[in-house]
Specification:
The structure holds 3 protein chains of 3 kinds. Chain A is of the alpha+beta class. Chain A has 11 helices and 21 strands. Helix content of chain A is 31%, strand content 28%. In chain A, helix 3 runs parallel beside helix 5. The longest helix of chain A has 28 residues. Chain B contains 13 helices and no strands. Classes of the chains: A alpha+beta, B mainly alpha, C mainly alpha. The interface between B and C is large, with 100 and 102 residues.
Chain lengths: 446, 330, 298
C-alpha cells in the first residue's frame, strides 16, 4: 500500500471516531487508501460511518485517534480551509442570501481577502516573500466564476438566488462552487439524493464527465448501491463503522469479501442460503457436496480448508439458468446434478416485471427450504404463481462463505484474476488522470 | 493562468509530517485538544461572560455579603451582624405581609396569564379574517405602552374627586365617592387590573402561536366524526394547549411579582397600609427609602433563593412526570 | 428572506390565515354568536385600553374642561403639550431615553451574537455550565440586583451618566444570548461547514454567512430589547435621578410631583413618553408582535 501513498491520494490510518451517544465507535478504520485521481465511492447502509469518514477527511470533524494524509501530507491537524479540498454537501449548503455567482465565488473572494491581508502584513513588516501569491482581482474572480458556471451549464442564471432554482440547478451550483477552486480532492456527500429519479441518472453521468475532465480525486458517499457500482472507479464498502471491502467495482461485485457485501451490492440481492457440507469421495466427482432442502450443489473443493460450522452458499439471481418442468415432473434435485454446480427446485411465488426482464421469487418445494429469486427474460415461461421451476447455476458463479461470513475461495470461483488487473489499471489511470487534470484546471481558471 | 489558479493551499504541507507517514508526530490527545485549546472561542464569549460575572453573579455574591452587614449607606462603619438582618426581616410585620401580598398577587394574576388570554385567543382563532387581525393588533397594544404612562392614565381616570370612573359610576347611581387607590379594598384589585392588561395581551399572542401550531387535520377528523364546535375545542384543541397553559402559568408564578412592581411603585408606593406592597417593592423601600442596605440585601437573597427553589422544583417535577410517563404501560 | 433563517417558531401571519374555518351555523344563530363575540372582544379591549385612550382624549382638552366627561375633545387644544414642553425638558428626556434604549440594544445584540455564534460554532469546554448560567441569569429578577448595581455605580461615579444607565442593563443579556443562540442553531450546519471548507475563518463566517442570515432575528431581538428598555422605570430611577439626565419614564414621575394637582400637562407628557414606541408598533405591528412572540416572556 505504501506505493500508493507515495503516489498521493488519501490515506486514512488507525482512524477512530466516536460520538458521545454511541457505545461503539462510529468509525474505526485501521487502514484505507483512496487512489489518486480515482472516483471513489464509499457506500454502505445508513449509520455505517460513511458520512463520518467524509467529514473527517474534510476536517469538519476531529478524529479521536489516527491520521489523515492527502497527497502525502498529514492534514490531520489542519483546518478544513487549508486542506485543498472542496465538498458538495448533501443539501448543497448554498448560501441563501447570495446569488449563484456570489455562491460560486465566495471561496475565491475569501482567498483573495486573505492574500491581500497577507500582502499588507508583509509590506508593513517588510517580510514580503517573493513567492507570496498576489491576491486575485475582482475581474479575475468574476472570470473564474463565469467559466465554472458555464462548465455546469448555469450560464444566464448567475444572478438568481438559490431559492429561485430547481433542485438540479442547485446541485450544479454546489458543483461549480466546489470546482471553481480547482481542488485536488472533491468530496461529495450524497450529492444526488435530493434529486428525483430521472434527474439523478443524468446527474450521475454529468458527475463522471466532470471528474474525467478535472481529474481530481473524488470521494462520493452514497447509500445507493446502484449509484456506487455505476460511478465508481474504486469502491469502498463500509458496515457498522468498519471497512468491509475495497477494490474496483468489478472485483467487489464478483468477489464479495463477505456475506454483507454479497447481500448489499446488486439488485435483486444475491441469494444466500445456509447449506450443510457432505464429503464426497467418489472417483469421478472429487470435492465437496453441499446440501439444503430442495438444493444440491457440488464444488471441486474449497481452495482452503473449510472452517467448521455452518456454511452459506450464494448465487446472483441473474446467474441462474431456469428450466421448466418436463411433462413428468422433476426428479429429485440430487439426481439432476451431474458434475459441479448447483441445482435448486422451487415453486413460483411472486413475479415482478422490470421492463427488460422479470424477477421470479420462488419458495422451496420442500418443507423447511428457503426462498430465492432468479431473473428470467421478459417473454417466456414462469409467468404464473404455482409453476414449478428448476434452476441451475454454474460452479464458477457460486460464492461460498464460511461460518464467520467471510468468503471462501474454491477452484472454480470466478475466472479472471481481477486483483492483478486492478493494480495495473490503477497505475495507468493515475497517469492518464495526471495529464488531463492540468488541462481541465487550466480550462476553468486560466 | 491567473493567480487564483495557484493550487497550493498555504500551510498545507505541514513541515513536521514526512510524506507518506501520516502516523508520525502528534497523538490522539493532540487531535482532541486542537479545537478546544485555542483562544478564539473565548474572544467571542468574553463579552457574555464578563456581563454575567460583572452584572449578575458578582452582584449576587456582593448582595449575599451585604446581607450580613449593618449598613445605612451613609456611615463608614459596616459591622458584621450575622443573621440579624434576616431575623429583623421576619421579625417585623412588613416583610411577612409583603410575602403574603406577593402570593395574593400571584393567585390573582394566574387566571389573567392562562384562561383569559386562552379564551380570547381561541375566539380570534376560530374566525380568522380582517376583524380578528384588528382585534389582535388592538389587544396587543398594552404590551408596548410605557407602563408609567399607563399608570399615570389610570391615576387620572381613577381620581377620587373628579375622575371619569367615579363620574360614570355616579351617573349610574352606584356612588361616586370611591377612593380607588386610597382604599385597601380596591387598591390591590386596581394594581392587578392594570398589570393584567399587559399579561393578557402578551399571553394571548403566545396562545395564538400555539393555536397556529395545531394540526388542522385533527380538527377536520373530529368534524367528520360529528363533533360540535364546543366538543372540538374541549377535546381536540384544549389538550394540545395544556402544556402551553401550564408553562405560562408557571412563568406567571415566577414573574408576577416583577410585573406588578412598576405599577405598585407609581400608583400606590405599596400603600395604603402596605396593602399593595410586595417583596420587590419592599426590597426597594428598604434600600432606597430607608437606606437599610443590610435588610434590602437580605430580602434580595430571600427572593433569589425562593425563585431558585421554585425553578428547581419545576425541573424536578418535569423529571418525575417524565419518568412516570415512561414507567406507565401503554 | 431566506427560508431557513426564519425564527424557529412558525410566523403567525400564515398560520392565522389557515386557522380553523368552521362551518357556518344557521343565520340567526350566526348573527347572535358574532354579536356576542364582538361584545366580549370590545369589552376586553375597552377595559384594557380605556384609561390610556381617555388620557389621550383629555390631553387635547382645554384646561378648564379637563375633568369633563365629553368623549370628543373639541375644540382641540394643544395647550397642555405646549406647557409640558415649556415646564419640563421633555425633548431632552426623550433623547436620553433613546440613547439608553439604543445603547442597551446595541450592547446586548453584540454580546448575544458573539456568544450565540461561539456556542454553536466552537467546541467550547464548560458549554453546559455556561448554558446553565445563562438560564439561571434569566430567572434572577433585576430588582434583586439593584442594591449592588447602585453601589457599584456610586463607586464608579457614573450616576447621571449614559454608561451608568446602559451598562448595568447588560445583566439582561442572557435573554438575547439564548434567543440568538437558538437562531444560529437553526442555520443549517452545512452552511458553516461549507464556509470553513472554503477557507473562511470563524470571523469571516460570522460576518459573511451568519450575520446576513441572522438579520430578521436580529431585528426581532432588537425590537424586543429596545421596547423593554424604553419602558424601563426602576433602573433609571436609581441611576439617573436628576431632572436633566434621567429618562422620560422617570421624568413623568418627577413631573407628577412637580405639577401636583394640574394633570393636563402630565397627561400630555405621558402621551409623548409612549408615542415613539406606539408609532413603531402602528407601522410594524406584525413585526413587533413577532419579536415578542419569539422572545417570550419578559
Amino acid at each position: 500500500m505504501t506505493d500508493r501513498a507515495a503516489l498521493g491520494g488519501i490515506v486514512l490510518r488507525d482512524l477512530v471516531k466516536s460520538y458521545a451517544d454511541g457505545d461503539r465507535p462510529a468509525l474505526d478504520l485501521p487502514e484505507l487508501t483512496i487512489p489518486p485521481g480515482s472516483f471513489t465511492v464509499v457506500v454502505g447502509p445508513s449509520g455505517c460511518g460513511k458520512s463520518t469518514a467524509l467529514r473527517l477527511i474534510a476536517g469538519l470533524e476531529t478524529p479521536d485517534a489516527g491520521h489523515i494524509a492527502i497527497d502525502g501530507a498529514d492534514v490531520t491537524d489542519l483546518p478544513p480551509g487549508r486542506r485543498d479540498l472542496s465538498m458538495v454537501f448533501q443539501d448543497f449548503a448554498l448560501y441563501p442570501h447570495m446569488t449563484v455567482a456570489e455562491n460560486v465565488g465566495f471561496g475565491l473572494r475569501i482567498q483573495a481577502r486573505h492574500d491581500r491581508r497577507r500582502g499588507l502584513t508583509a509590506r508593513i513588516t517588510r517580510t514580503g516573500r517573493a513567492d507570496a501569491p498576489a491576491a486575485a482581482s475582482r475581474a479575475e474572480i468574476a472570470e473564474s466564476v463565469r467559466r465554472a458556471c458555464a462548465l455546469v451549464r448555469l450560464d444566464g442564471k448567475e444572478h438568481r438566488r438559490p431559492s429561485q432554482l430547481s433542485g438540479g440547478e442547485r446541485q450544479r451550483v454546489a458543483l461549480a462552487r466546489a470546482l471553481v477552486r480547482g481542488p485536488s480532492v472533491l468530496l461529495l456527500d450524497e450529492p444526488l439524493s435530493a434529486l428525483d429519479a430521472q434527474l439523478r441518472h443524468h446527474a450521475r453521468a454529468e458527475l463522471v464527465r466532470l471528474h474525467r475532465e478535472f481529474g481530481c480525486t473524488a470521494v462520493l458517499v452514497t447509500h445507493d448501491q446502484l449509484e456506487a457500482l455505476s460511478m465508481a472507479t474504486h469502491l469502498v464498502v463500509l458496515d457498522g463503522g468498519r471497512l468491509s471491502q475495497a477494490g474496483s467495482p468489478q472485483e467487489v461485485y464478483s468477489r464479495p469479501a463477505n456475506t454483507f457485501v454479497a447481500g448489499f451490492l446488486g439488485s435483486p440481492a444475491m441469494n444466500l442460503q445456509p447449506v450443510e457440507t457432505i464429503a464426497e469421495g467418489s472417483a469421478t466427482t472429487a470435492g465437496v457436496g453441499l446440501r439444503a432442502p430442495g438444493l444440491q450443489a457440488r464444488l471441486a473443493g474449497p481452495a482452503e480448508p473449510l472452517p467448521a460450522g455452518p456454511v452459506s452458499l450464494g448465487w446472483r439471481p441473474a446467474d441462474g439458468v431456469p428450466e421448466a418442468a418436463p411433462a413428468g415432473g422433476f426428479g429429485s434435485a440430487a439426481g439432476a446434478l451431474t458434475g459441479a454446480g448447483l441445482v435448486v427446485d422451487g415453486i413460483v411465488d411472486i413475479v415482478e416485471y422490470t421492463g427488460d426482464g422479470r424477477v421470479v421469487t420462488c419458495r422451496s418445494t420442500v418443507e423447511g427450504g428457503s426462498s430465492w429469486a432468479v431473473t428470467v427474460p421478459a417473454e417466456g415461461p414462469f409467468r404464473a404463481a404455482g409453476e414449478r421451476v428448476r434452476v441451475r447455476v454454474a460452479a464458477e458463479r457460486l460464492h461460498l462463505f464460511g461460518p464467520d461470513g467471510r468468503r471462501v475461495e474454491h477452484p472454480e470461483s470466478d475466472g479472471p484474476d481481477l486483483r492483478g488487473r486492478d493494480r495495473a489499471d490503477a497505475g495507468a489511470e493515475a497517469e492518464r488522470v495526471a495529464g488531463q487534470r492540468l488541462g481541465a484546471a487550466d480550462q476553468v481558471r486560466a | 493562468m491567473s493567480t487564483t489558479a495557484v493550487r497550493t493551499a498555504p500551510g498545507r504541507r505541514a513541515p513536521d509530517a514526512p510524506a507518506g507517514e501520516p502516523g508520525a508526530g502528534t497523538g490522539a490527545r493532540a487531535a482532541r485538544g486542537r479545537r478546544t485549546g485555542r483562544v478564539g472561542p473565548w474572544l467571542y464569549l468574553t463579552p457574555m461572560l464578563a456581563s454575567l460575572v460583572v452584572w449578575v453573579y458578582g452582584p449576587l455574591v456582593f448582595t449575599g455579603v451585604l446581607s450580613f452587614l449593618d449598613w445605612d449607606l451613609t456611615s463608614d462603619r459596616r459591622p458584621f451582624v450575622g443573621l440579624d438582618n434576616y431575623e429583623r426581616l421576619f421579625g417585623e410585620p412588613e416583610f411577612p405581609q409583603a410575602i403574603q401580598r406577593t402570593l395574593l398577587y400571584v393567585v390573582l394574576m394566574v387566571p389573567f396569564a392562562t384562561f383569559v388570554p386562552l379564551g380570547l385567543a381561541i375566539m380570534l382563532w376560530k374566525r380568522p379574517g380582517r376583524g380578528s387581525e384588528i382585534y389582535r393588533a388592538l389587544l396587543f397594544l398594552p404590551v408596548v405602552l410605557a407602563p408609567v404612562a399607563t399608570a399615570v392614565s389610570w391615576q387620572f381616570v381613577l381620581n377620587p374627586l373628579q375622575g371619569v370612573a367615579n363620574a360614570t359610576l355616579g351617573g349610574l347611581g352606584l356612588g361616586s365617592d370611591r377612593n380607588w387607590l386610597g382604599d385597601p379594598d380596591t387598591a390591590l384589585p386596581v394594581v392587578v387590573a392594570v398589570t393584567a392588561a399587559k399579561i393578557v395581551a402578551l399571553n394571548m399572542l403566545l396562545f395564538g402561536a400555539a393555536l397556529a401550531g395545531i394540526d388542522r387535520r385533527g380538527i377536520e377528523a373530529a368534524r367528520v366524526e360529528g363533533a360540535t364546535e364546543w366538543e372540538i375545542t374541549r377535546f381536540v384543541v384544549w389538550p394540545q394547549l395544556r402544556r402551553t397553559t401550564v408553562l405560562l402559568g408557571f412563568v406567571c408564578v415566577v414573574l408576577a411579582g416583577q410585573w406588578v412592581f412598576t405599577n405598585v411603585a407609581v400608583l400606590t408606593q405599596g400603600g395604603p397600609d402596605g396593602s399593595t406592597d410586595n417583596v420587590y417593592h419592599r426590597l426597594y423601600t428598604y434600600g432606597f427609602t430607608f437606606f437599610d442596605i443590610g435588610a434590602a440585601s437580605a430580602a434580595a437573597v430571600v427572593i433569589v433563593l425562593a425563585l431558585t427553589a421554585l425553578f428547581a422544583l419545576r425541573v424536578l417535577a418535569a423529571r418525575v412526570t417524565r419518568r412516570f410517563a415512561r414507567a406507565r404501560p401503554r | 428572506m431566506p427560508a431557513h433563517a426564519d425564527p424557529p417558531t412558525p410566523a403567525p401571519r400564515t398560520l392565522h390565515r389557515r386557522a380553523a374555518g368552521y362551518p357556518r351555523a344557521p343565520r340567526v344563530g350566526r348573527v347572535l354568536r358574532a354579536g356576542a363575540r364582538h361584545a366580549v372582544l370590545l369589552a376586553v379591549a375597552g377595559a384594557m385600553l380605556f384609561p390610556v385612550l381617555w388620557a389621550l382624549i383629555t390631553s387635547f382638552k382645554p384646561a378648564n374642561d379637563i375633568y369633563g366627561t365629553d368623549p370628543v375633545p373639541w375644540p382641540a387644544s394643544l395647550e397642555h403639550y405646549r406647557s409640558a414642553l415649556d415646564d419640563f425638558p421633555i425633548v431632552r428626556l426623550l433623547v436620553n431615553t433613546f440613547v439608553m434604549a439604543a445603547g442597551v440594544t446595541l450592547a446586548q445584540l453584540t454580546v448575544g451574537v458573539l456568544a450565540g455564534y461561539a456556542l454553536v460554532r466552537f467546541h467550547v469546554p464548560l458549554r453546559g455550565w455556561m448554558m446553565g448560567a445563562l438560564a439561571v441569569a434569566l430567572v434572577v429578577p433585576t430588582q434583586s440586583l439593584i442594591v449592588p448595581h447602585f453601589l457599584m455605580l456610586a463607586e464608579l461615579g457614573w450616576r447621571d451618566s449614559y454608561p451608568g444607565l446602559v451598562l448595568p442593563q447588560l445583566s439582561g443579556c442572557a435573554l438575547a444570548v439564548l434567543l440568538l443562540h437558538e437562531h444560529v442553531k437553526a442555520i443549517p450546519a452545512g452552511l458553516l461547514g461549507a464556509a470553513a471548507l472554503e477557507g473562511a475563518t470563524p470571523w469571516e463566517t460570522l460576518r459573511f454567512v451568519v450575520l446576513p442570515l441572522l438579520r430578521p432575528a436580529l431585528g426581532a431581538v432588537a425590537v424586543l430589547v429596545f421596547i423593554s428598555t424604553w419602558n424601563e422605570y426602576l433602573w433609571p430611577l436609581l441611576a439617573a435621578p436628576s431632572r436633566e439626565h434621567t429618562t422620560i419614564q422617570v421624568g413623568l414621575q418627577l413631573f407628577q410631583n412637580q405639577e401636583g394637582p394640574n394633570p393636563g400637562p402630565l397627561l400630555a407628557a405621558a402621551m409623548l413618553a409612549t408615542l415613539p414606541v406606539v408609532a413603531v408598533y402602528l407601522f410594524a405591528s406584525r413585526r413587533v408582535a413577532d419579536a415578542f412572540l419569539h422572545s417570550g416572556l419578559r
